[in-house]
Amino acid sequence: MDTVPPLWKELKESADFVCYEHFMNAERVFIGYIKTLTDMETVQRQILSCLSDHPGLSFNEMYAVIPVAEKEIAHDWKIIQDNIYRGYVAVQFGLQSHRCMLINAAISKGRSVTIPEVEFTVEGPKEAFVESLDINLNLIRTRVPVPELRIREMTIGSVSKSRVAVVYLKGIANEAYLNTCVQRLEDVRFDQVTDSTLLQQMIEDNSNSIFPQSIGTERPDYVAWALSSGQICILKDGSPASVFAPVNFWSFFITYEDYYLPWIIASLLRMIRFFSVFFSVFASPLYVAVITYHGQGVSNVFLPTIVSSRINVPFPPIVEVLIMELVIELLREAGARLPSKIGQTIGIVGGIVLGTAAVEAALTSNFLLIIVALSALASFTTPIFRMSATIRMLRFPFIFAAQIWGLLGIFICTLALVAHLLRLTSLGMPYLVPLYPFRKADLYDTAIRPPYSKFHHRFSFFRSPNPVRFERKKAAAKKDIDD
């Protein structure tokens, strides 16, 4: 068709845009949509059949008759165009009219809800977010079925036109944190926002820090817990992960499976994670410092073993450590980029072959090989991937500092790290809270996961308008039926 409404000529340049003319009592009606985004069954049964069955109706009468829930009347061409690119069908009466009916006929395709792939747990629900924003909001709504659950939706990205939803609990989430989050999302000026991880980096307080200041998760039960604690959740259409903030440093070493296990077991596992982080960062630098500068501090029990393992190694400790650390990182990257079955084989076979060959070729010592392998394993205990990558990268400045100044270098690097963490914030909340600023009442769910009787108050650093979860005295006074 050569004759189209003037406002539709730009869309007509695309091969998948369909625009044709329909007559209703000699009045011309123009129907336009993008066929690659539109469900043809909805177009045929709900829209075209309705136009044919009611030829004498006016524009407003026809709008009321079409049996589709999501529809609207628009005059602004920008709104009309944006909705057509979202799968809506535009119906315009007359060639020069600027008024269109917009009827939702978008194709609903996507994978079904599956088990978590990254945050898999033995205990607890087995549902994970998918790429559909509506399905993800449904997963949250079913877990938080209260009227206080509020959703703010906006469009971000001049090219991607991404739907982004900010989810929070009215009366529990702090308004200052919420306004900060919404303002930063509205200030995002980027053309293509393909995933929530991009938003995660764009709205953080310090984008130059290697430490993440928000948590990404694929588990709707974890998001429900965060919302009830007073945190704010961000979801993006097309992304299978949710982001929530504000968070503190200790949150990255807590997995939500801790809350499904008995509190004593969960506390032990949590302490193992914190010890693993400490070991992963400091083990290799301490080896470099001790072997290079402080050999007199090695116990006589270990000294013969270390000397005998290094007697044929031609490299200084710093080169020896860097070789092994880079080999571990290469194996990790190769295993992550290859298909899963091949990646597992590369990791196991490559680690055994290269480790054995490196020791036999006198490129490294047995003692260092054990330290590096344990450090790599310890880094995997961090449940949040972005923090795990941060912990791995932290080792290298500590190694170089240990080579230059020994134990003093490690101490200086530690001070610099602590100073950086003290300056970090998440949506304005201090990153090291409750240790700095110190809040004794909020220490109950950090290194130790307490029993649920201790969760009677929300963390004060979330500044929730409603800090009480339940009345502690009433819960303690309640008796069992057989008492």
From TrEMBL:
TM helices/strands, residue ranges: 274-293, 343-361, 367-386, 398-422
Key word Transcription regulation present: no
Domain of life per record: Bacteria
InterPro entries in UniProt: Spore_Ger, UPF0353/GerABKA_families
Coiled coil: none
Keywords: Membrane, Transmembrane, Transmembrane helix
Keyword Transmembrane helix in annotation: yes
Family that this chain belongs to: Belongs to the GerABKA family.
This protein's name: Spore germination protein
Organism: Paenibacillus artemisiicola
